[in-house]
Amino acid sequence: VGCDRSKNLVDICGEKNFQAFVCDALSVPIHSGSCDACISIAVIHHFSTVERRLAAIRELARLLRPGGTALIYVWAMEQEYKNQKSKYLKEKNGSKDKEEEISTGTAPRPLEDQTPDSSSGDSGCSDGLCNDWKGEGWDAKPGADSRLPVHTNRTSFHSQDLLVPWHLKGGTKKKGESVDTVLFSAGSKESQEPVFHRYYHVFCEGELEAACRTLDCVRVQKSYYDQGNWCVVLEKL
């Protein structure tokens, strides 16, 4: 059984005879302890506060029966890890159309594609970016300047909190377009191609695991890096 905030995407699932419904990841209308397993792929990094990200993890744990497991994937700040570049760092050409299809929900998205648009360069987490959550638990405090940088596709990350743009191909609304996506006007040369900006909080190494360990109802079975994502497997106690 699947769920998503976007009715259009849920409708696509229905057309394919999959069971899915519309809901908020912070309030899933399923009885506590009902699920053997839950997955959350490329979702939690869209929540804009520490409290909401933790609430999303807590909601996953609530759904699990004792002994049940959850798998969580979030985008990583580090797109080059242990001297290995992520898949998206390696793919520099011929992928724009694919990205647009994926962004609008009109094409299937493999697990390995749940990675940000980045390019070569050292995008490891700097001490300044990570000290917020390492120094005081993992509760990063927002700065006085609340303006978010707009990420340049296929470049390294310079901020953990940012807006990631994508172009709506052809300037027409696609079936899977989210109703709550913010639309920004494009430049004069791209006036027929609207640019959408989505909020992301990219996670530093250890940040997702630290968040999960604040919950006493689960234990971390495994924590690992996979193609530009930080991943955790949880077990309900």
UniProtKB/TrEMBL annotation:
Q: Which GO terms describe its cellular component?
A: cytoplasm; nucleus
The alphabetical list of record keywords is: Methyltransferase, Transferase
What taxonomic ancestry is recorded? Eukaryota, Metazoa, Chordata, Craniata, Vertebrata
Name this polypeptide is given:
ALKB8 protein
Q: Which GO terms describe its biological process?
A: tRNA methylation; tRNA wobble uridine modification
List, as start-end ranges, the regions of compositional bias called Low complexity: 117-126
Query: What species is this protein from?
Result: Chordeiles acutipennis
Q: Give start and end of each Methyltransferase type domain.
A: 1-72
Gene3D superfamilies according to UniProt? Vaccinia Virus protein VP39
Instruction: List, alphabetically, the Pfam families matched.
Output: Methyltransf_11
Positions of the region Disordered?
88-126
Domain of life of the native organism: Eukaryota
Q: Which GO terms describe its molecular function?
A: S-adenosylmethionine-dependent methyltransferase activity; tRNA (5-carboxymethyluridine(34)-5-O)-methyltransferase activity; tRNA binding
Compositional bias of type Basic and acidic residues: which residue ranges?
88-101
